[in-house]
Amino acid sequence: AADKIRLIPQDFFAELCEQIIQHLNHKIPGVNTAELCQRIQTSRVDINIDDLAKIANALSFLFSTAARNNLSTEELITTLGSGVSPLPKHAVQVIRHVWNEQGKAIAVSEDAGNMATVGQFVDMKWKLGVAMSSDTCRSLKYPYVTVTLTVADPAGQITDKSFEMTIPQFKNFFRQFKEMASVLETV
C-alpha cells in the first residue's frame, strides 16, 4: 500500500483521510472512492479503484484503531514509523495533520460499531423503461423499472447496485416501502 500511496498527490490523499475521518464520525455514509479515483486519474496519476479502496480500508483501520487505543498524534506517528514499509513523508504529514485536527473526535462506541456492520443506505434512483424489441422477439412492449441503490459498505466504500423489476414486482416493492413508512411513523 505504501508504494501506491506514493502515487497519490498530497491534496487528494488529504481529502481521502478527511473523508475517512468524517465517515468514522458518522458525518457521511462512506467514502466515494470511485469518484475520487476518477479525479486522481484525471490529474494523470496511474492508480486504479481497487488500489484506492485498499488504501482507504487501511487508513480507516489505522484511524479507528488509533481512536480505540486513544493514541496521541505523536504515538500514532511513532507507530507508523515502526512499520515494515515506511509511508512517504507527505502521507505521514497529512496523517499527522488530520489526526491532530480531527482524530480525537472519532466516536468509539460499541453500538455504532455494531450498527455499521451491515452497511448503510445512501440513495435510491429509479426509472421507468419499455423494452420495444430484442434479438428473438420483434415486438415486446414490455414495461420495467430499473432501480439503482447507492450503499456504503461497512468499510465506507460507496457502491451502486442496480436491478430491474416488472411492474407487478415494483408495485409489491412500493407497497412494502409504504408499510415500512407507516411503521416508522408509529415509532
UniProtKB/TrEMBL annotation:
Domain COMM: 120-187
Taxonomic superkingdom: Eukaryota
Gene Ontology molecular function: any one: NF-kappaB binding
Sequence intervals crossing the membrane: none
Role of this protein: Scaffold protein in the commander complex that is essential for endosomal recycling of transmembrane cargos; the commander complex is composed of the CCC subcomplex and the retriever subcomplex. May modulate activity of cullin-RING E3 ubiquitin ligase (CRL) complexes. Down-regulates activation of NF-kappa-B. Inhibits TNF-induced NFKB1 activation.
UniProt record similarity statement: Belongs to the COMM domain-containing protein 6 family.
Protein name per Swiss-Prot or TrEMBL: COMM domain-containing protein 6
Organism: Donacobius atricapilla
